[in-house]
Amino acid sequence: MNARTRDSALYAVVVCSAIGLGLFLHWPSLHAGYRGDDFPQRAMIRGEFVAPRAPLDLFAFASGEPHDVEKLMDFGYMPWWTAPDLRLRMWRPLASALMVLDQRVLDASTELQHAHSLVWYAALVLVCSRLFRR
């Protein structure tokens, strides 16, 4: 076995180990159910959130508009002392699109939704490993 083949084999083992370790450590999440911001984001997707959001804007928890923050405070989502111009939003269209897909296709199974996230994790590690290899 030449050095190049040995290096490639070692690199493949390292990448597979990283993916395997990550999947092993996150495996318990399959049975975790919904947590934290899953609930308001699911309400946003269904159109039941007190302050409507677009399907690709599920990480806009407070828009910075006083009327929006007031609605959130009246509903009890934000405490009464919240600044009226609070802006708590992240632009994450891919994550939002994947959440919409999960809810529309895999809504009955939180295990499948979490498994879908683990598949994306493995794909990300694989793609990054290819970029780092260059």
Describe the structure.
There is one protein chain. By secondary structure, the chain is mainly α. 60% of the residues lie in helices and 5% in strands. The protein contains five helices and two strands, in the order ααβαβαα. A two-stranded antiparallel ribbon has the order 1-2. α1 (3-26) runs antiparallel to α5 (110-133). It is elongated, with a radius of gyration of 20 Å. The two termini are 22 Å apart. The relative contact order is 0.15. The mean pLDDT is 89.
In short:
By secondary structure, the protein is mainly alpha-helical. It is built from five helices and two strands, in the order ααβαβαα. α1 (3-26) runs antiparallel to α5.
Features:
2 strands, two-stranded antiparallel ribbon, 134 residues, mainly alpha, 5 helices, elongated
